[in-house]
Amino acid sequence: MQFLKALFWFLILGVIAAFAVTNWHPVEIQLWSGLVADVNLPFLILVAFLIGLLPMMLLYHAARWRGRQRIAMLERTLADLRAVQAAPSPPTVEPAPAVDVEPTPSAVQP
């Protein structure tokens, strides 16, 4: 499988190199106030590709980071809830029943 992956990337790079070699001619770009920029076509295509790729890559990484943070928070919450359920409850002490003690006659003073 690794061989097929490497072969695929070499083919893609070969196509890109062939495109760059066969289309290596300057393209005029009209800028503001009469300025003209001469840029080679493969460079212009690369810049346009990166302008479209980079914002989407930033959005993807931000969403992935946010998802990982949410998963970590949910896992911590779940661990806390499991710890609360697993902790033994403190023993309850029942109060002793109230006993009516009548005073003895010797304890009573006249």
From TrEMBL:
Highest taxon in the source lineage: Bacteria
Lipopolysaccharide assembly protein A domain ranges (all copies): 23-82
UniProt-annotated stretches for the region Disordered: 86-110
Transmembrane residue ranges: 44-63
UniProt entry keywords in alphabetical sequence: Cell membrane, Membrane, Transmembrane, Transmembrane helix
Example of a GO cellular component annotation carried by this entry: plasma membrane
The protein, known as: Lipopolysaccharide assembly protein A domain-containing protein
Species, as recorded: Sphingomonas turrisvirgatae
Lineage: Bacteria, Pseudomonadati, Pseudomonadota, Alphaproteobacteria, Sphingomonadales
